[in-house]
Amino acid sequence: MKKIAFIGLGNMGLPMARNLLKAGHELKVFDLVQAAVDELVAEGAKAANDAHDAVAGVDLVVSMLPASRHVEGLYLGDDGLLAFIRAGTLVLECSTISPDAARKVHARAKALGIDLLDAPVSGGTAGAAAGTLTFMVGGDGKTLEKARPVLAAMGKNIFHAGPEGAGQVAKVCNNQVLAVQMIATAEAMALGVANGLDPSALAEIMRQSSGGNWVLERYNPWPGVMANAPASNGYQGGFMAELMAKDLGLAQEAAQLTQNSTPMGALALQLYKMLLKQGKGRQDFSVVQQLFIEPEA
Fold first, then answer.
1. Considering 2, 146, 156, 171, which one is annotated as catalytic?
2. Fewer Cβ close by (within 10 Å): the C or N end of the chain?
3. Is the Cβ–Cβ distance between 238 and 280 less than 8 Å?
4. Cα(64)–Cα(75) distance, integer angstroms
5. How many CB atoms sit inside 10 A of residue 27's CB?
6. Quick one: CA torsion of 273, 278, 281, 285, rounded to 10 degrees?
7. Which one-letter DSSP state was computed for residue 86?
8. In the chain, which residues fall in CATH 1.10.1040.10?
9. Which residues pair with 30 in a beta bridge?
């Protein structure tokens, strides 16, 4: 079993850390929200005074933070964690950040003799709780093999996407597809219901036909169609719209760097920005359904 520092106990990080505890690992945890730390301490983790304290004497570090600036701020610079983590320690950076930011952190870690992988995840809060996340890993393949047992305690599917930053590229590509699928499904659901179709019947017809997709299988955006989907719970829980907007923005940054044309991704980003302006950023990303429904008089 490993001595692990876990930094970032948000909606995703907390259940991921909990699964490491369940697997028998020894955890030191840190988050700016003390309640999240206290919750894991009650389950057997040890509280760190700060991030530097968290990484002292551990075998492995896991971080799960909101955005590129948080990751760069945590790891880089004279006071960054990489300057305090001992050589040979394994670092799993699981946040969704820009590929360029990931490569900066990789470069600094390599210069200091620290093994680092960028390993963003897919599967949402339900997958984090169930330990069935998909990890998209960028970095050295031999390092991934060393990390695999720890990743397996948190996820079901572990893919080596390629070299440094490749995990982040795979993640933004995946989430662009997911956003476009969600928007297309929401648009079609609204069209069918407006023309007199029962939403559950329409959803099942499309699911079993050539329009079938992951959203129709597991995450229908129309309220009441799937009892366990966020749409049937006031669009609470799940993956927040503001995070989808962030990931779509990262996809556009990557496209600009390589001169790729991504018109569907660009349109998806604008629609999610509309949701943010409407104050719906903290709701599940399937709330995009509401853009296609006429408000009641």
1. 171
2. C
3. no
4. 12
5. 24
6. -70
7. P
8. 169-291
9. 7
**What does the block give as tokens for 140?**
């050295």
292 phi/psi in degrees, rounded to 5: -110, 5
- Which residue, chain included where needed, has tokens 């946040």? 95
**Contact by Cβ (8 Å): 16, 22:** no
CA–CA separation, 132 and 126 (whole Å): 8
Each residue's pLDDT tens digit in the chain (297 positions)? 889 999 999 989 999 999 999 999 999 999 999 999 999 999 999 999 999 999 999 999 999 999 999 999 999 988 999 999 999 999 999 999 999 999 999 999 999 999 999 999 998 888 999 999 999 999 999 999 999 999 999 999 999 999 999 999 999 999 999 999 999 999 999 999 999 999 999 999 999 999 999 999 999 999 999 999 999 999 998 889 999 999 999 999 999 989 999 999 999 999 999 999 999 999 999 999 999 997 654
Range 3-163 classified under CATH 3.40.50.720: yes
CA-to-CA separations, 115 to 78, 99, 142, 217, in angstroms, rounded: 19, 17, 10, 38
Active site residue 246: no
Which residues of the chain are in CATH 3.40.50.720 domains? 3-163
